[in-house]
Structures are given as C-alpha cells and as structure tokens.
Design brief:
The complex is a heterotrimer of chains A (407), B (364) and C (545).
Chain A: H1 2-18, E1 30-40, E2 46-53, H2 55-58, E3 73-80, H3 83-89, E4 97-99, E5 105-109, H4 110-115, H5 123-127, E6 136-140, H6 145-150, H7 159-173, H8 182-190, E7 197-205, H9 207-210, E8 223-234, E9 237-242, H10 244-253, E10 260-266, E11 269-289, E12 292-308, H11 317-345, H12 352-359, H13 361-367, H14 371-378, E13 380-391, H15 399-406
Parallel strand pairs in A: 1-4, 1-5, 5-6, 6-7, 12-13
Antiparallel strand pairs in A: 1-2, 2-3, 7-8, 8-9, 10-11, 11-12
Chain B: H1 8-20, H2 36-60, H3 66-74, H4 76-108, H5 115-131, H6 134-161, H7 178-189, H8 210-239, H9 241-246, H10 250-256, E1 259-260, E2 264-265, H11 268-297, H12 307-320, H13 325-363
Antiparallel strand pairs in B: 1-2
Helix pairs in contact in B: 1-6, 1-8, 1-11, 2-7, 2-8, 2-13, 3-4, 4-5, 4-11, 4-12, 4-13, 5-11, 5-12, 6-11, 8-10, 11-12
Chain C: H1 2-15, H2 37-47, E1 54-60, E2 68-74, H3 80-93, H4 95-98, H5 106-114, E3 120-123, H6 126-135, E4 137-142, E5 148-152, H7 181-191, E6 197-204, E7 210-217, H8 223-235, H9 244-251, E8 263-265, H10 268-276, E9 280-284, E10 290-293, H11 305-308, H12 311-340, H13 348-359, H14 365-385, H15 388-409, H16 414-429, H17 433-471, E11 473-474, E12 477-478
Antiparallel strand pairs in C: 1-2, 2-4, 3-5, 4-5, 6-7, 7-9, 8-10, 9-10, 11-12
Classes of the chains: A alpha/beta (407), B mainly alpha (364), C alpha+beta (545).
C-alpha cells in the first residue's frame, strides 16, 4: 500500500520539477534599472528615460575585458500613456528584461509636476511588487528628467547613486534639502493634513557635454548634478520652489535637520560667527483656542562654534549666552519666513493639519475641508527656540584677536 | 485516536505558531484604523474565554476526541452530523489558509508561477508531515519556534534601527471611541485568529499533563495576542494608517522599508521564510485534526492513509473557493465570520458546554 | 500501474532462494573428539586443509610411559613466547609432576599445576575446538582422553597505540583505538576503573566469527536499551563482519535516511564520556571504530575537546559548528536562489559585481554550480585514494585548474568558486565525518530544489528535512532530543555548553535510573577567608589575617 502512494508522491514531485521553472531570471537576462525619469512630450504622453547599469563596465573588468572604456550606464527612452505601457514598450529597444528591484531613483519633470501634477503617476510603483517604494523621488529643476539621467558623473560610477548619496549627505550636512521616498510622497499626497515637498536637482553646466564620456575624464567636470531647492506642492501640483534659508526653515519644522551651519551677525560684522548644529529636536503641537488652531513649534538645538571672523572672546560664558540668543532669533526668523511663504502658497507642507488631527480629532473633522485654503493661511504659529553652544573646537580665542592687541 | 502524547510545552508551541499562521499576512482589524492593536488585545481576551470553553468540555471528557463526546452530549445522530460539519469547517479553513499563502507567494515573489503549483508544493510537505503524526509535528514545532522567534526579534530590532518607528502615527488613540473597537472585535478579531483555537479542542486529548495544558494554552494565546498586537502597532507606526488599509500584506510592506547600514535592505525573503513556516503549521494542524476526526467518525484504523486524499481535497478546494483575490478577501471578511466562525467557534461550543454541565450534574 | 510493482515483487521472491548462513561451512555436525590422538590430529589437519601455519607439536610428557601429547596452535595469532616458555617448557621440564601423570589425570594435572597461563578451559566437541584454535588459543591433546585443553595465548603482531587519524584534538589524550578488541576494551577500562563497567562478548558472523563486545556502566545505563541492543545483535545472520560499519547498518533504526543513527569514534575518552552518560559502546574486533548507541543529532556536533575547554570557547565553537553545518547544506543553493530568482535580495553593488562576472559565463547558475560541486567531489575522492607521494600534485592541479584556469577560461565565475570552496571547507569542519557525508548528499537536493523554485523551494525542503529529523529515533530515543522534545535540564549541553558545574544531570533519555552526576554546589569559589580573593570581592569583614 505504501508503494502506491510513494509513486504518486514521486509523480507529483516530478511533475512539478519537470514542467520547467517559471519565475527564473538569469542574471544575464535582466537589465538592472538604476533610475527612471518621467517627462511629458508634446502629445501629452509620458516619455520615460531608463538608466540601465552595464555591469561589465562598473566592476572594473575582472575578466580582463575592457573596463572604463565605455560608460557604466546606458539610457533608453520610451513613450506610453502610462507607466506600465512605457516600461513594456521599452522592450523593443532593450535586449533584456527590465528589472526594477534596484531602482532607487525616480526623477520627475518640473513641467509635468506643474501642469498635470504627480497624483496619478505613482500607482504603478505602489502596486508592483518588484518596484521598491523606498526609492527616492526628485524633481528636475530647469531641466528635463532625461538630461539628469544622461549625465555621467565622476566619483560614483552610477549617476543614480551619486544623486542619492548627494541628497543624503546634503541633508545631513547642509539641511536645505531632504530625501523623500515614494512611500512618503504618497502618504503626504493622500493625507489632508500635509502636502508633499520634494527636493529638486539641476544640471549645473553644459548638459550636452555632460552626457559624453569626456565629461568624466577631466578633473573639472563640464556638467554636475546639483541639489537645488525644495518643490512645494498643492493638490498634487507644483506651485513654488523654496530656496536658501526658506528651504531650511521647512526642514527645521519637519525635524529633518541633522547638521547645518548658521551664520549670525556680531558687533556690526555680517555673518561673523559660524555655528554648527550637531543635533536638534523640533516638536510641533497644536491647540485649539476659540475654535481657531494655534500651532506651537519648539526647537531645541545644540552645536559648536565652527568659525569666527571677529575677535570675540569665547572663554567668557556670557559671550556664549549672547551668541545663543542671537542664534535663537536667527532660527526663529528662518522658520517664520518659511511658514509665511507656505501660507502665501496656501499649502500646508509642514503637517500642521496632522498635528491638529492628533491632538483634537473632533476639531479636525470640522477644519479638514478647508484646511489648505482657509485655516492654514490664517493660523498663528508660536515659535520658541532654545539654542545651546556647547563647545568651541580646539581653540577658544581666535588667533587674530591677539594679533590686533599686540600691534 | 493515535497512540501519541505531547507535552504541555509542545502544546504551547503549537498554539503559538498556529495563531501566528496567517495573521502575519493579513491586515487585521483595519476598520479600527490606528487602534487596530487595541482590537487585537480585546480579541485576545475573547480568545481566553473561548479556550476556557473548549478546555471545560475537555475536562468533562478527557479521553475522548470532540467527535466522540459531541455524540455523547447530544446523541449519536446529531453528534455525528455536528462532528462532520466541524470537519468540513476544518478542511475549508485549511483550504482558505493555503489559498492565502499561495496568493502571497505569487504576488510577492513568483508572479509567473501558477497558483496550483505553489499550493501543491506546500501541500506535499504538509502531507509528508501530517502522516507522521502529532508527535513529530510537535517536535518540529519546538525547533521552528526558536527559529521564528529569532527572526521576529531580529526583524523588530532592524525596524527600530532603521529609524522607521514613528509612534505619532498611532495617535489619536480611540478616535472613534471604545464602542467601535468592541464592535470590530466581535466581528473580526475574536474569530480570526483567536477563535480558531477550536481546532485544538481536537488535540487536547493528546496532552499528557492535562493540568498544565490549561496554563499552556492560555499562555500561548496571551503571548501570541501580545505579539500580534505589537506587530499591528508596528505596521501602523511605520506605514501609517492609510497605507495599512490599502496593502494586502502590511507586514511585508513594513519589512520592505527596512534599510540599515546600506546593505541590509530588501529583506522580504525573510518575511517569506517566517510566514511560510507559521502558515505551514497552521495548515498542518487543521489537516491533522480533519484527518483524525474523519478517522474517528468513520472508524478507520490507520489515519495516516487518509492524509493524501484529504490533502488533495484541500489543494483543489483552495483553488476553487475564489476566482480572484478580492472575492477571496471579501468572503473572508464579510461572509465567513458571521455564518461560519461565529456559530462553530462560539455558539456551538458554548451550547455544548452548557448541556454537558447539566448532564454531568445529573449524573452525580 | 501499481500492479506493475506487484509483479516485480513476486519475481524477486521466487528468484531468491533463501540465503542464510546455513549454507556456510559448518562444524556443528562433527560431534566430539575421539580418544585417539592420531585420529584427532588427522581430523585437525583435514579440517584446516593442512594449512601450513597450523603447528602441531608432539611431546612426551611423561618419561616413563608413552603418553603422547600434542600441542596445536596457529602460528601468527598466538604469542609464541608464552607458549614456549609457559606451556611447552613447563610441561617438558616439570619432572616432579610428571611422575604423577597418567592418561586420565593428565589434563587435570597440566591445567592445575603445570600450565602457568591465565585462561584455560576444557573442550570436548569439534566445533569449540576448532573455533578456539582459530581464535588464537593453544590446544593440548592427550592420547586416550576425549577432551582437550584450550589455553588462552592470543597474541601476535598488532598495531601499537597511535594518535587517532580521524578525530584529532588539540587538548586531550592522544591515544586512539587499534584493531585488537582486547586492547580497545583495556583502553576504556583504564579510564573507567569501576567494577560496574560490564562487558558482554559475542561472536557475530558465521564465517569470520568476529568478536563483538558491548560495554556499559551498570547502574547508569538504560536497561531497555541494552536489552534491545542484545536482541538486534542476536538477529544478525550474515557471513562476515569486517568492520563496525556492517554492524551499524544491520542494527540501525532506519535505513532510508542520510542521517546516521549510531555514532562511531576512534577515541577512548569519547567512549568513556558517552558511557558515563548512560550509553552503550559496541566494540568490533578488527576495527578501531567503536559504535555508540543510542545517538542524538546534537552529538555529531560535539567534539571531545568541548568538554575539556572552558565554557565560553566551547559554546562559541559549538554555535560555529551548527552554523557551519547549515552553510554546508544551504550555501550553494542560497547562492543559486538569490542570483536566479531573488535578485532583489542582494545589495546593488554586489549584484553588479556578480552580474559582471556572469556576463562572461555561458552556463546558467545551476549548471555552473553543479559542475563545480561535482568537480569538487571528484577532487575529494582523489585526495582520499591518492598515495601520499602524489598528494601535493593533486592539490596543485586542483588549485590551478579549477581555481585559476576555469575562471579565466570563462567556464565558471569567481563568485561560484568562492561559494563552493566555502561550502567544502565548511563540510570539513564538521567534527563527525558521518554528518559531513549526509550534508554532502543533501546539498545536491537543495541545489536542485533551489534552481527550480528559489527560496520557497529551499524553505520547503528545509522544513521536510527537519520533519524527517524529528521523526527519527535511535533505539527509542527521539533523534532531536533534548531540543525537541525540549527538556531544559539536558539542554545545557547542546548548542551551548554550560560550565561543568551547571551540568548537574545526565541526559534523562538515556539513563533513567541514576540521573545526578555531580554533588551539590560544584561551582568553584575560591575561599574568601583564606586570602585568595581580592579585597573588593571579599564579603567578610576586615579582621582577617
């Protein structure tokens, strides 16, 4: 009796094994897509630019083959009415199957974001199991997305990596830009209490030269990809670009600053002291007062003095306290600036609506409908900053303070 | 009945793995939005009560399988009929869970493979295991318990290390009020996963330390309830309520967002591993109780011979119960709890317990 | 279609005439010794086919009457010195006693007074006589009596005690078993000097009459296991036992498995350790490999040294070994699954590197892996059979051809070479060869499954393997004890190894009677009141001198 079932068992197993393996993808049959760019052409169809990695040229030719003679990436473009069509139609040009699991960058054209908005583009990325929603999104500022993808870069072989790493480190060091993933973007699009804000990138220099291999064979590159500004959205459409200190104000409120440099004026000199923020914590809370929402933002920043350009005696604690007070005013100014600008754009990119929702759900129900257009522009934000100067580096007094007193 | 004995600790492990079975896959109590974890905890309490009912029945008839004592309580004909319904129920739920698994694998990892093959493979392994009996299943459970827990703790640490945990997503707590949470508990979390412990009513006679079995069972339900609540809260805090309600596999989406140290990314395969192990146990337990129940009702001596046919039935059932995922999920959320779970998990055992109570009081 | 099998089965049965050792040369029917010595000697010569190493020495033991005596032995398996000195010399030169000798009491006199040797017995039937002769005993035949003396004079050349070749240890005794069963049992007796160490001998194998002995410590061992073992050994009905492997395969619990259910070792200290835990050792003459029953899975990951080293390094090494075992099973299959089905798992940089390598290789990953694995198995077999002189040439060929040239020729990719090498080294690192063999075979199954279904297949096969392991029993003991079923008291010696003072109990599954192996409170604590600890750990007051 046992034999019969063993036979059946073996038959079933054999059937499963011999009918071929369906999901098999040999490494030589897949094209690793490192970045995807989305533009729109005159007919209103989407034009996708797909950046594919050439593994042989990246790894440095262990097999004795030619490495470094050809660029490490290749780009192809395809048109379609939606993302899926575009991706499949691209197979007419590409000798392999497009593999999106390692696509870490999605670039969106500025005009597309302004005119049509980004609300509908992300569904394919959200739904497909292969595509990672942890991929970063950026907006192409003053360029087409295709140009950003075609630019070759120096230190990093794969341009998509360069963009992502640049974004990461500038978020940590300078704080004007922030990394936004598809998942976060969708979350902000959907939530009534927050609007998306996405970093922009531009090609600095000669874009056409940037596409050639000679670009990376010189010490000073002809074209560089640079992070440039924060794109502010309202109802899924791009309405404004924030730059400079306004952009930093946004990241302050969103609690995304990990380190930056704040210059303050001192004793008549402009931008005389550089303060390096090392860590900070921003708390945003909302209260209802007389049926009106009131937001309080509390920032707590710690840091060191990085550079002084005036002979100030840093050994005296009261001097440090004064510096702290000036810093607090400076930060307050930046934040208020950012809030006013956003209120002018009638777009709550800070998530104040969500703060109201968390603290007072009932009130939120009433305010939800006209939040962006009515309540947000009118609300008052109370910003309190606590800045602490902890250390002054390896020196206390600057060397030129002795110089002047000696002469 | 098999001549097998399992210890109370093995019962604990089996119930724990069983409870985790498909719960890790499904978005649980989504209508409760950010209070889903509260609904889970309330469901745990309900689970305690249900287990207490099954244990009470076991105490009245410690050496009989439920298919036998049901006949003793309400008479032979009615009892056999009821027992048969229970067995059909077990097989149906086994098929449902197998379908859940197949869907998950096909959606996430093997989009080109036919569902039948994926299900057939799991069914083959399950048949191989169930033929060997409950002791082997319990021992395997003990080993896998350690593995699954290691993975779970590692995953948890990784999520926290990625800085993804955003507890503010859990607020506002009790936005809709406690009543709606209770309502959701009674329509969802009580039955799935906690009410499914009814399958263990068939396994209780095999435990050799009946006093400890109660503690083991309650402890297992409590621990798994806490685990599931933590996982639910984790999903909400990492993904946000909106994404959780739109994902068919929220835990997978959570794990997909883990990015630590630049190379620990894209860990969904580990999720697949853990969920396959837990799902395997759940389906095996259901298949096993169905097999011994049928062997008992129809007086078949060697229950291991039944496993193949029942396995094949479950396989085919899993393919035919729904033609697409939306139908499958809708059935599970709206039809099954009221018409199937509620009577068989709650109403009938409660009724049986009351009747047994009166019967035994009379006989004293 | 199943009836197809039935036909085969019937055919097989009819073809097999029942083979049993009844057809083997058998001495049972010959009866008893004769009175006349010449007839006896003729019978001996005939039965041994006049083998040239059977020495028949006739003597005169009594100067007066002509009592013909003969001393028979097989040269080479006896200790000729003791025969010459103690037997022949004593008989011939003991004039005093020779006065008293008559035909009737000759044997008694010799055995009581003359033969200054250890074991002596009287034999009277041919079967016993010839068996004793072949076992290395000397026979003394006296004309006129129908009995003979059989004196224990086993000896001859055997290998001296050397370091065991398979289970080396850095710390621990260096002696290993040899081929002589007496030496082996003596080695264990030297470690366990206790009268409770009991030894039961038997002869198994109709033609070879191999000495097999089982040894256990009475009072600790599980009597049921001993009884079961005895039954199984009695059941063995085969013509020859050449090695303990024969015994292992004839008494094991389940044949259809790659996992061994009996443990074998070459080291006396391992045998002693296992005996102390309540297991039974089986010695087989002619092989240095001693079997131990019952066995659990974890035992194959324990080396003798684990118990001599301290707990932290022992635990770390144990965990490492378990990890190594898993690598050796799953290594290549994980690589195949990751690069063929689940490319999203690998970090992008790694994926690019591997993709670059695979561009140059014509085969799919599975075929490449199979080529490498089979080549490696060939190399391994060659390494075992190769005479020492050419051994180094093999390693050079292996390294150059496989490693370097194949990669450069584009037949395999470097990543695959790395994976296969690590797997191979991992399989060498498992302490017990038996388990390494199982891992070798299972690895191929995993590779095939991985190539067909990716990680799903690996997980399912893994589940099946674990279910199979949990189903095995070795002499009634579940194979995966003490992890499953979990018994916390003996789990301290499995994947981790708690310090010796914490392992108070013996594993409960092997010894029911006597569980405690240590006294209370064995944790070493230097006494504080004798100034042997630092002052900051001292709990007593300062008034100590």
């Amino acid at each position: 009796m046992n034999r019969k079932w063993m036979f059946l068992f073996l038959m079933l197993t054999g059937l499963a094994l011999t009918s071929g393996c369906w999901g098999k993808k040999e490494l030589t049959d897949i094209a690793l897509v490192s970045a995807l760019g989305i533009d729109k052409n005159e007919e209103g169809r989407y034009v996708g630019t797909i950046q594919i990695i050439n593994p042989g040229n990246v790894a440095g030719g262990l097999q004795g083959g030619g490495g470094g003679q050809a660029p490490s990436i290749t780009t192809y473009s395809a048109t379609g009415d939606n993302m899926v069509e575009m991706s499949r139609r691209a197979s007419t040009k590409i000798s392999r199957r497009l593999y999106y699991a390692h696509t870490n960058l999605v670039v969106i054209n500025e005009e597309l974001a302004k005119e049509e908005g980004i609300t509908k583009i992300f569904d394919a990325f959200d739904r497909d199991p292969e595509f990672r929603t942890t991929a970063t999104i950026i907006i192409a500022h003053d360029t087409k997305a295709a140009d950003i993808l075609k630019t070759l870069t120096g230190v990093d072989k794969i341009p998509a990596n360069k963009v992502i790493k640049t974004l990461k480190f500038t978020e940590q060091r300078w704080g004007e830009h922030m990394e936004v993933s598809i998942q976060e973007g969708i979350k902000d699009l959907v939530s009534p209490g927050k609007e998306p804000v996405i970093t922009g990138f531009r090609v600095n220099g000669n874009a056409e030269q940037g596409k050639k291999l000679e670009n990376v064979q010189q010490s000073a590159l002809e074209a560089i990809l640079q992070a440039d500004g924060l794109a502010v959205f309202k109802d899924g459409k791009l309405v404004d670009w924030f730059q400079g200190e306004t952009a930093r104000g946004v990241t302050w409120i969103l609690d995304k600053i990990q380190g930056t440099d704040i210059n303050i004026n001192w004793e008549g000199e402009q931008e005389a002291i550089a303060y390096q923020v090392i860590r900070q914590k921003t708390k945003v809370s909302a209260n209802m007062k007389n049926g009106q929402p009131k937001i309080s933002i509390h920032v707590r920043a710690e840091g060191d003095i990085g550079e002084v350009m005036v002979p100030v005696d840093l050994t005296v604690p009261s001097v440090l306290f004064n510096i702290e007070k000036t810093l607090e005013k400076e930060i307050q100014k930046e934040i208020n600036h950012a809030i006013q600008r956003a209120q002018k754009n009638q777009s709550d990119i800070f998530g104040f609506g969500e703060a109201v929702h968390r603290s007072n759900p009932k009130a939120w129900k009433k305010l939800k409908q006209d939040w962006n257009n009515v309540h947000f522009p009118q609300l008052k934000a109370d910003v309190t900053v606590e800045a602490f100067v902890r250390r002054t580096g390896l020196r206390n007094k600057p060397y030129f303070s002795n110089m002047e007193s000696n002469q | 009945m098999e001549k097998a004995k399992i210890s109370a600790y093995q019962l604990f492990v089996l119930i724990l793995l069983f409870e985790h079975g498909t719960t890790l896959l499904i978005p649980l109590a989504v209508e409760a939005k950010q209070d889903a974890w509260l609904a889970v905890l309330l469901g745990t309490v309900g689970g305690f009560i249900l287990f207490w009912i099954y244990y009470g029945l076991y105490q009245y008839y410690p050496d009989n399988l439920p298919t036998q004592y049901v006949q003793k309580i309400i008479g032979k004909v009615l009892g056999r009929l009821l027992g048969f319904f229970f067995l059909l129920y077990f097989m149906y739920i086994a098929a449902r869970d197998l379908r859940d698994f197949g869907e998950m694998l096909v959606t996430v990892a093997y989009p080109d493979t036919p569902l039948f093959i994926v299900n057939a493979l799991l069914m083959l392994v399950m048949v191989y295991t169930v033929r060997k009996g409950i002791e082997v299943l319990a021992r395997t459970g003990e080993l896998f318990f350690i593995i699954v827990y290691l993975f779970a703790i590692t995953g948890f640490i990784l999520v926290i290390a990625s800085g993804l945990l955003n507890l503010t997503n859990l607020k506002p707590v009790l936005e809709e009020g406690i009543l709606s949470i209770i309502k959701i508990t009674f329509t969802q979390t009580l039955y799935f996963p906690f009410g499914e412990v009814v399958a263990f009513a068939m396994i209780l006679p095999y435990v050799n330390q009946s006093k400890k079995a109660k503690v083991a069972g309650l402890f297992a339900i409590g621990l798994s309830g806490i685990n599931i609540a933590i996982i639910t809260a984790l999903n909400i805090s990492v993904l946000g309520v909106d994404l959780v309600s739109r994902s068919p596999f929220p835990l997978l989406s959570t794990i997909q967002t883990i990015r630590v140290a630049e190379f620990l990314e894209r860990l969904d395969v580990y999720f697949m591993l853990t969920s396959i192990i837990c799902g395997f146990f759940k389906i095996s337990v259901y298949c096993y109780v169905a097999v011994i129940g049928i062997a008992d009702l129809f007086n078949i001596k060697e229950s291991s011979r039944l496993v193949y046919p029942i396995g094949i039935v479950i396989l085919f059932l899993s393919i035919t119960i729904a033609s697409n995922t939306s139908e499958h999920i809708k059935e599970g959320l709206q039809i099954i709890p009221f018409f199937v779970h509620m009577p068989l998990q709650v109403a009938v055992p409660l009724l049986l317990l009351v009747i047994a109570f009166f019967k035994n009081r009379k006989s004293r | 279609m199943p009836s197809f099998f039935k036909h085969l089965k019937k055919k097989k049965n009819s073809e097999n005439h029942k083979e049993s050792s009844q057809d083997q040369p058998n001495n049972r029917l010959l009866g008893f010794i004769d009175d006349s010595i010449s007839i006896n000697l003729d019978m001996i010569k005939q039965k041994t086919g006049n083998s040239s190493d059977v020495v028949i020495r006739t003597l005169n033991i009594s100067p007066h009457s002509e009592i013909k005596t003969a001393v028979v032995y097989v040269e080479g398996i006896v200790d000729t010195v003791s025969i010459n000195d103690f037997l022949i010399e004593s008989i011939m030169k003991n004039h005093a006693l020779q006065e008293k000798l008559t035909r009737e009491n000759a044997l008694k006199v010799i055995s009581n007074n003359v033969a200054a040797l250890g074991s002596i017995k009287l034999v009277s039937d041919w079967e016993q006589l010839l068996l004793s002769l072949m076992a290395g005993e000397t026979l003394i035949l006296v004309d006129g009596t129908n009995e003979a003396l059989s004196v224990g004079t086993q000896g001859g050349e055997t290998r001296s005690i050397e370091e065991p070749s398979t289970q080396l240890a850095v710390r621990g005794s260096r002696s290993g078993f040899t081929e002589s069963i007496r030496t082996n049992t003596a080695l264990v007796r030297r470690i366990i000097k206790n009268p409770d160490l009991w030894l039961e001998s038997m002869k198994i194998g109709e033609v070879t009459q191999t000495d097999v002995a089982i040894m256990y410590i009475n009072g600790i061992v599980n009597k049921k296991v001993v009884e079961e073992l005895r039954q199984r050994l009695k059941r063995i009905d085969i013509d020859g036992i050449l090695e303990s492997g024969y015994i292992e395969q004839l008494i094991e619990d389940q044949t259809m498995t790659t996992f061994p259910t009996l443990y074998h070792t070459e080291r006396p200290d391992m045998v002693a350790g296992n005996l102390l835990e309540g297991k039974v050792a089986i010695f087989v003459d002619g092989t240095p490999f001693v079997l131990i029953a019952p066995t659990i899975f974890i035992q194959f990951f324990q080396a003798a040294e684990d118990y001599y080293a301290r707990f932290d390094i022992a635990t770390a090494l144990r965990l490492l070994r378990v990890m190594i075992f898993f690598i050796s099973i799953i290594g290549p299959s994980a690589y195949i699954a990751a690069t063929t089905f689940h490319q999203e798992m690998l970090p992008t940089q790694l994926l690019i590197a591997i993709a670059a390598q695979r561009e140059a290789v014509p085969f799919p990953a599975f075929v490449e892996a199979m080529i490498m694995e089979v080549t490696f198995e060939i190399l391994r077999e060659a390494g075992v059979r190769m005479p020492r002189a050419i051994g180094s040439a093999v390693s050079i060929v292996g390294a150059l051809v496989i490693g370097q040239a194949a990669v450069q020729a584009g037949i395999v990719s470097p990543a695959m070479v790395i994976v296969v090498s690590i797997t191979a080294i991992a399989s060498f690192a498992t302490p017990s060869f038996a388990i390494a063999i199982s891992a070798r075979l299972i690895r191929f199954i995993f590779m095939i499954v991985a190539a067909t279904f990716g990680f799903y297949g690996i997980i399912l096969s893994f589940i099946m393997m674990i279910v199979h392991l949990c189903d095995l029993r070795s002499f009634g003991v579940p194979y995966m004890s003490p992890l499953a079923p979990f018994s916390p008291k003996s789990a301290g010696d499995t994947v981790v190894r708690l310090p010796w003072w914490a392992l108070k109990q013996r594993p409960p599954f092997t010894s029911n009677e006597n569980n405690i192996r240590q006294g209370k409170d064995q944790r070493p604590q230097p006494p504080a009141n004798r100034g042997m600890v630092n002052s900051h750990t001292r709990k007593s007051d300062q008034n100590e001198s």
